Amino acid sequence: MWGVVNSNYVGINSTFINPASMVNSKYWLDVNLVTLDAFGENNSFYVPKKELYFCEILTPTADFGDEKPALKDHYDRKNDLKANFSTRVELPSFMLNRGIDAFGFQMSVRGAGSLRGIEYHTSKFLYEGIDFDPQHDKYYEIRDMKMSSLSWAELAFSYSRVLKTFSNKYFAVGATLKKTQGLGGTYFNVPYANYIVYDDSTLSVEEMSAEYGAAMPMDYSDNDYTTDRGLTFGGGWAVDLGFEFQKKRDGNGTLRVKRLCAQGWSSFKYRVGISILDLGYVKFRENAFVYSYDQAQTYWPGFNRFDPQSVDGFTTEFNTRFGQSTEASEREFTIGLPTAVAVQYELHPVGYWFFNTSFVYPLPLFRNSVIRPTQLSFTPRYEKRRIEFSFPLSLYEWDRLRMGVAVRVWNLTVGTDYFSSWTGFFDFYGSDIYMSWKMSFAKGMCRHGNSNFHRGKRYYKKACPDF
Asked: Which sequence spans correspond to the domains of the chain?
């Protein structure tokens, strides 16, 4: 969400990148009605650009041509398969800004997943199937393969405070404490494996050290959804921490006022921030299982007919083939959230233009963690109270350049950081889209007299200079 997270009008959602930014919002009250964000991308499987036209990928009835399948693979011996996805539904949330400090409350349902370490030969078998002749009768190795996916609900309380303001210097800190509730999670880690595919039906694994676990809202015997074990299967805690420095242009803007709506907002020449995001975990204890393998082996003729119809069917046959017990080795496990460190720098010349550069780098702290993708972004932004445009340019995983656009009209924002993926000019490896709808009240604008809120109108008088 590079198109919105660094905006001075983003309000409570500034905590997505740095909780310290909340106190510098141009809003004194921000009520988020709903925020939606969905993202997915990989570096191997794609829809060719020649089979796409402008925005066709968004059309439910898209026709990708006669050749099937439309999905292709990028068979490259130099690159391992990487993939990420994330989703966020932020429910009604709010922020109250008192000038010297600000606090907020958020309710969200989030999902995230990452895949790392799938080497070229394994990704080719995933795409072509076991009958890919050029890779038969050859030994291959897997090293440090990691897959984690997580779905969780989040209750978050954020607090941000101005530490010091002297002359034109401004320092602020912020933190978000989050209670996490696990809705489901899986992981599959393979530190080492050595395998050979003899033909279109026979797999031999000479050695495998691996571990996988899951906790999901289903009956594992038939994969039917169930709430017999409850709606959540574990929980945990997480925090976000942030710091921000600003070089002010016209004072610090933290003077005490009688009414919160009469607060001013002071412009800055530049600002620098650093934050740690999603430092936490979810521990699953209900309907959870873990299976471990240490130097396991198997010779598996008829592997092409392996088609389990349930989780229990998969675990039973898989463990039997590797000579392992069908009983789970553990009944609880932990998955780390997509922890990352983020750095922000924003330049603000005189006027309405802002130029932001941000960098996010993953810091997986748990053995089983969702790994956030590395991103470097540059976002020019034109920002006024009623309208805002931003044009994020980002480098994803040091590999793919992405161009996006976001537009805010009053309190409705719609955008994407990967608009270039919709144009039909580039192969489609993934994309994202986000929107936010809120009710917000700007600093320096106080309502007076009778309210015509029910008519969709509000009347204001100026309590301090415009900005």
From this structure: 11-462
